[in-house]
User: What shape does this take?
Amino acid sequence: MDRSTGLALFAMGVSVVVIANDFSAVNVALSTMEKDFSTNINTIQWVINAYALTFGVMIVTGGRLADMFGRRRAFFLGTAIFASMSALGGAAQTEAWLIATRVAMGIGGALMWPAILGMTYALLPAEKAGLAGGIILGAAGLGNAVGPLVGGVLTDLLSWRWIFFLNVPISVFAVLVTYYLVRVKEPDAGEQKIDYAGIAALSVGLVALLVALDQVDDWGWGDPRVIGLLALAVALIAVFVPIERRAGISALVPRAVMRNESFRASCLAILFMSATFFAALLYLPQFMQKHLGYSPLEAGVGLLPFLATFALVSFAAGPLYNRVGAKPLASLGAVCIAIAPFVFSRVGEGSGYGSLVAGMVILGVGIGSFYPTATTAGVTSVDKSQTSLAGGIVYMCQIAGGSIGLGLTTAVFSAQGSFVEGFRAAFRLDAALALVGFLIVLFFIGGRLLHPRQAGGVPA
Assistant: This one.
């Protein structure tokens, strides 16, 4: 790998770190924001929810636009939106102002992420595809891991506003490196049409689904608002299929992608596995704060055995993918993701922090080996002209699977008599969901369980 390619990959990784960091860095600053704006936690939590919701809803559209009009163009536009809205967010004078900028940042991130993924796979030869996936998912894990630390340090020493201001110079660096060093084949934008009907149906359907799942803990499953939102989501996602058929080659999700069995298997496995990932990010810090008495920053540091392992294993998964193939690596990850919630479900009323460490390390190994592998297997199964779209769909499945799983686990958690009992019951459900994901991996991802090189045979 020459120096310019290495620097280009570094810029892609840094961009992903910034996007992922903005999911977790703000968590530790919410209480300070609440005081500064004299508001309540139900309002200020939308600083996180608005970003995550917009990002998850728009990422498929961002991926399709990147494939249609050029990944460099999508990246430059997305980064300009992300950086400018970060600057405005840092200068926010009201909570409404800040939340509005977070919505716009989500749009920028949704354009950046699939464009970055597409460019990273394009920068490397096909035999190094696993390395591309490892770089991107490893950078995401690193961003998630350092987010609480960066957010806590900046909030304590300077101000929470610097969480947003810091995005600006990093974004400028990434744009300059990409402009001068990243050269990928771009499509002719004049030949493309935007599938507005498909974008509207999928986006509104996903908004309805994610808002319903986000609010179900407050409103309850039987609330007419939750039922109405879920009904709207089902109806719009159902009509999305015939809309795409009529759109033909201009469809938001082309027929070739929808019919790709390998791609569908990767998405479905990620859908089931994401419940454990999201539950861990929610319930482990709560266990540390509510049961062990940790501060928010201490809880963020307490997650390091999980998030740091996730980041390190993700970077290692790329070279391993190229050596052993998708099946063994994805299967290892899926097994670990299924074992970890079982370990968490064994904690008791007298358990301390040490009872979580083994489960966090196992989960970090599982997430770090499964997600890059499943992503690479899915993205490389489609045509190269559709890799950004495929990356966007894969991430949407992660968001949707995590949100649906979190809604189910929250319902189970709330039905128990105590926090610890709810914690244990929630992770037992997650273990069952992860087992389904493991079976999908075992039978449908990456071909035979034993890679041809290890079996002594030759690739077909």
